[in-house]
Amino acid sequence: MKRDIHIRKAVEADIDCIEKLYEDICDYLERHKNYPGWKKGIYPVRFDAEKGLMINALYVAQVEEKTVGTIILKHQPEEGYKDGKWLTEDDYRYIYVIYTLAVHPDYLKCGVGTELLMFAEQVARKEGCVSIRLDVVKGNIPAERLYQKCGYQLTGTVSLGYEEYGLYWYHLYEKVL
Question: Mind listing the pLDDT tens digit for each residue in 18-73?
């Protein structure tokens, strides 16, 4: 069923709902296949949302008044991105990196992830960006299918330094705008 999804910049009042969203996702992942390797109390947590809000990079997706998804858009890469092979030059003033794309389990397969990615593209184009980059833990098949469906190209595999959490390899994706 297609639902009306509204995406906007997050405000301070959204932080409690985003924290609950992260907790609900981690609870769901504990009971199902944990493709992204997210762990309650470790990542993602309230502080991740607060950091995104502080730099004006946090967005929320809502259906009616319920927070059903979130995304962080930054002009800053993960350290391991320097080891990647990219489709565009590394000028992050003109490249957005997607962090913590999250969709509430009750809204999986409802188009929220696709809408968040399309929204990110609109923001990036409006700002004159040349591409959007992201990483996904190797083996996160649902996320990789979503990114590929939305036109992102796999550009390589790198370590991002999260081995202590059992997350060894990340696939890098880029969409040229």
Answer: 999 999 999 999 999 999 999 999 999 999 999 999 999 999 999 999 999 999 99
CA distances from 11 to 8, 52, 85, 88, 143 (A): 9, 10, 35, 32, 26
Helix axis angle for 46-54 and 15-31, nearest 10°, is 140
pTM above 0.90, yes or no: yes
Calpha distance 123→112 (Å, rounded): 16
What span, in angstroms and rounded, lies between the C-alpha atoms of 84 and 98?
16
CA angle 15, 20, 24 (to 5 degrees): 150
- Using an 8 Å Cβ cutoff, are 24 and 38 in contact? no
* Residue 2 pLDDT level (bands cut at 50, 70, 90): low
Structure token digits, residue 101: 């794309």
